[in-house]
Specification:
six-stranded mixed β-sheet, about 525 residues, alpha/beta, five-stranded parallel β-sheet, elongated, Response regulator, HptR
Length: about 525
């Protein structure tokens, strides 16, 4: 609602205006009234308005004097004059003062409404333009600050942009803090994208306002990952960084209480001089990885000894994973879940454990379970749901306990689905499935299998489709592709050799089938998996 103030020394005119027009319908609200200019000016010293509607001839202070005085107090106010005098001099002076319209009494209601509508449109256009400029400047400022903390800007350009940055240069030191809002999986799936963006924007505004109260040497911006970054100047490098850590802890508690969202807050090293601010940003971002090692209620603060390198990778060895796969194949649920628990227990006992060790372990176990699910056709049947988001969840900030529970839930779901699948298939179809598992690299057909089982091939094909929901050829094709997918990651074999090993004599046909089912080529998948490992 835009705020309107009425000024007229004739009470019945003010009351008439208040009741003749549906102000709310036009996005307006009358917030005050006065009988003369002096009274109005006194009220407007404490009342912010958007539109002033005033008479000209009034005691103590006329309308034109009032307009001049109000413009000094509130430069953006729009003015509409009502007058019983059709005096050209009044009109001319009103125009020089920038009024929206000069209406004669008795007021024509329709003309006043047209004037109000045009005035509101002008205000909204001005607001939109101002917001557009503000957003544009914010994008430029974010880009400059991000280039600063990633050492991607030359010192001369940085100094030329100091006023736009909003933070003093040349201080003894700088420190960076980061804030990552931890929307959980359910929120990520159910919340509107716009709603999440609005929440992040609201938190950013709150951080900007709060940072000003902390001190003038603060800048708040968003980096390319969507994290909020607070960059603070330090006069006393050690003492001021300690104060900044306290400030970030208070900010974390306030955001958690106000929005009810978990968040991860980190603080980087104190860097000396503006040229080394990128070190503080880099270490603040690296500290986000350490959330997986233990739960934290306050900020994760960088200390040099906190980032050791593990002597040896802590991920399970191939022999251990092979044993886990055998447990899955045998349907030994309790033993498989116990194996997962032991793997994470070993992690907790590993000296010099790094976040990547925890994530690599989770990735390896999940990959083995997914591979088993592919073999059991659970992807097609939907028995375990869409697991493609699992691997992105692993690298999201969470505690080791939460990560272990994620892995256990998935393994439990896979084994439950496997048991259900075994119960649903007839003995003959179970034999067919085992033959596919054993001989998928050979030439397979219903004709050869039906001979082995002493059955009519047409009847066997109908029975297979009825129980599995897909044709025999489609099932074999998917099974071979699943094997190929695993070999692309686990071996250094050429793609043509993998194609032949899983039963495709035509490599180009293998490429087409792989892209059809997975959306990318075998080469693209192998390159992507290597990036994930790195």
């Amino acid at each position: 609602m835009y705020r309107v103030f009425l000024v007229d020394d004739e009470p019945f005119i003010m009351e008439g205006l208040a009741y003749l027009i549906d102000w709310e319908r036009h996005g307006l609200q009358i917030v005050g009234k006065a009988a003369d200019g002096a009274e109005a000016l006194e009220a407007l010293a404490a009342e912010t308005i958007d539109i002033l509607i005033t008479d000209i001839q009034m005691p103590h202070m006329n309308g034109l004097e009032l307009i001049r005085s109000v413009r000094e107090l509130q430069p953006d106010v729009k003015f509409i004059i009502l007058s019983g005098y059709n005096d050209f001099d009044y009109v001319k002076e009103g125009v020089t003062l920038g009024i929206e319209n000069y209406l004669l009494k008795p007021v024509n209601t329709e003309e006043l409404i047209r004037t109000l509508t045009a005035t509101v449109a002008k205000i909204e256009q001005s607001v939109y333009k101002e917001e557009s400029i503000k957003r544009h400047l914010e994008i430029i400022r974010d880009n400059l600050l991000y280039r600063w903390v990633t050492a991607a800007i030359e010192p001369e350009e940085l100094r030329n942009r100091e006023e736009l940055l909003g933070i003093r240069l040349g201080l003894p030191g700088y420190v960076v803090g980061t804030i990552k809002l931890l929307f959980d999986q359910e929120q990520a799936e159910t919340a509107e994208v716009s709603s999440r963006a609005e929440t992040i924007a609201a938190v950013r505004t709150y951080c900007q306002r709060t940072a000003r109260s902390y001190g003038p040497g603060q800048a708040v911006f968003a980096d390319l990952e969507g994290d909020l970054v607070l960059l603070a100047g330090l006069n006393d490098v050690d003492a001021d960084r300690t104060g900044f850590v306290r400030f970030m802890a208070e900010l974390q508690a306030a955001i958690r209480e106000r929005w009810g969202l978990p968040l991860l807050v980190t603080v980087g090293e104190a860097s000396k001089g503006e040229a080394s601010a990128h070190r503080s940003y880099r270490t603040a971002k690296r500290m986000q990885d350490y959330y997986v090692l233990a739960p934290h209620d306050g900020p994760l603060v960088y200390e040099a000894p906190v980032l050791p390198a593990a002597a040896e990778p802590a991920a399970p060895a191939q022999a251990e994973l092979a044993h886990f796969c055998k447990l899955l194949s045998a349907g030994k649920k309790d033993e498989a879940l116990a194996w997962v628990g032991e793997a994470f227990t070993r992690l907790r006992e590993t000296e010099g454990l790094a976040p990547s060790d925890v994530q690599n372990t989770a990735m390896a176990v999940l990959a083995a379970a997914v591979h088993h699910a592919n073999l059991m056709r659970q992807e097609h049947e939907g028995a375990i749901g869409d697991y493609k988001h699992l691997f992105s969840q692993v690298v999201k900030p969470q505690t080791m306990q939460e990560l272990e529970e994620l892995v256990e839930r998935f393994v439990d779901r896979v084994l439950f689905a496997s048991e259900a699948a075994e119960r649903e298939y007839s003995p003959v179809i179970r034999q067919v499935l085992r033959e596919v598992e054993r001989r998928y690299g050979d030439e397979l057909s219903l004709k050869t299998l039906s001979q082995a089982f002493h059955m009519n091939p047409v009847y066997l094909g109908q029975l297979f489709h009825k129980e599995t929901g897909e044709t025999f050829s489609d099932y074999v094709n998917k099974y071979r592709l699943a094997q190929a997918k695993a070999l692309l990651v686990e071996s250094n074999l050429k793609t043509s050799d993998i194609s032949a090993r899983v039963g495709y004599t035509d490599t180009s046909y293998f490429y087409k089938q792989f892209r059809k089912y997975y959306g990318f080529s075998p080469t693209e998948y192998r390159n992507w998996s290597k990036l994930g490992d790195g």
